[in-house]
Amino acid sequence: MDDHKLKVFCAVAETKSFSQASKLMFLTQPAISLQIRALEEQLGTKLFTRSNKAVTLTETGTILYRHAQKILAAYAAIEKELNEATGLVKGKLLIGASTTLATYYLPNIIVEFKKSYPDILIDFERGNTQNIVDSLLKAKIDLGLVEGEVKDHRIEVEKLESDELLLVVNASHPWAERQDISIQEIIGQPFIMREEGSGTRQIIESALEGAGVNLGDLNIVMYLGSTEAIKTAVENALGISIISGWAVQKEVRFGVLRPLWFQDIRFKRDFSLVYQKKSFRTQPAEKFIELLKRSPMTPAAL
Question: What is the pLDDT of residues 40-80, one digit of tens each?
Fold first, then answer.
């Protein structure tokens, strides 16, 4: 059940752009314009004011937008109840996730989810935390999984388990058979660091400072722009590094990298589930959240 014109109208209202709405709705820009024109003719009123900078709602457009949100939510509620009554779970699920979660954690969750709900179409977007929040506010996604803090009052945040960053070394490294290490022992070792501005690097710097270790104390031999690049460098014995336990599951399983825990410090970051406040949660989103909450965040290989 749906009203396509209302969905197009809401997409333009939320993105304030015909071109952005066309990307969101997977329609051409002329098709978006045609739908809006048809709706304006049907209602006998102008819904948007167009300028070079943005598209804004008129007074009557604001009224329609308020009611359109309720109508579309009602359609979704009807579909949800009908699906529950017939035992079917179908529809579309739009997920956003930050890089670590999108690359190393969510694929396994999505595979598990599709086994239980094969009729749900999943659309997946990755980006940094702010990108995910922006997509939520524009209704481009149903829910997001992010690292770190979200302080936007329009966003509901539920903390999930923390991710721990671990020291990783090559399988031939003298420390490879050890279980843990002192933070002081890494000083002087060739160290591979993420690039400036990386969220992982910020966590490392903050934790090191708390332990009385300055970044300048480390023997940094290179800065790399991705976790994959760092793993390759460590595998080739170019240095040691601190990265997410999720990122090294496969390498640990195959014995090419070894994880070590620190005796005197923890490098942790929070993962959070985020969604818009007061928004109607679809049945696919609810089922996905249920799976998330009963799935362990600790990597199985570690």
Answer: 999 999 999 988 778 999 999 999 999 988 888 788 778 77
Residues 6+ apart with CB under 8 A from 261: 166, 167, 179, 180, 181
Residue bearing tokens 């970051």? 269
Q: Which helix (H) or strand (E) holds 220?
A: strand 219-224
Task: For residues 66 and 86, give the distance between their C-alpha atoms in angstroms, rounded to a whole number.
Answer: 31
In CATH, what is the architecture of 163-268?
A: 3-Layer(aba) Sandwich (3.40)
Q: pLDDT for 131-177, tens place per residue?
A: 888 888 877 888 999 876 788 888 889 888 777 899 999 999 999 99
- Chain-wide mean pLDDT for the chain? 86
- For domain 89-161+270-294, the CATH architecture is 3-Layer(aba) Sandwich (3.40)
Q: How many CA atoms lie within 13 A of 299 on its CB side?
A: 21
Q: 11's torsion region: left (phi>0), alpha (psi -120 to 50) or beta? A: alpha
N residues, the chain? 302
Query: Whole-angstrom Cα distance, residue 241 to residue 219?
Result: 11
CA of 286: how far to CAs of 5, 23, 74, 107, 205, in Å? Answer: 26, 26, 16, 18, 37
List, in sequence order, every beta strand (DSSP E) within 98-213: 120-126, 143-147, 155-170, 180-181, 190-194
> Could you tell me the CA-to-CA distances from 283 to 9, 89, 108 in Å, in that order?
23, 7, 20
Helix (H) or strand (E) holding 268: strand 267-276
Bridge partners of 224, per DSSP, are 194
Please name which of 261, 130, 269 lies closest in space to residue 194, comparing C-alpha atoms: 269
Region 226-251 average pLDDT: 93
Q: Find, among 208, 238, 245, the residue nearest to 223 by Cα.
A: 238
Region 4-85: CATH code: 1.10.10.10
Going by pLDDT thresholds of 50, 70 and 90, the confidence category of residue 298 is: low
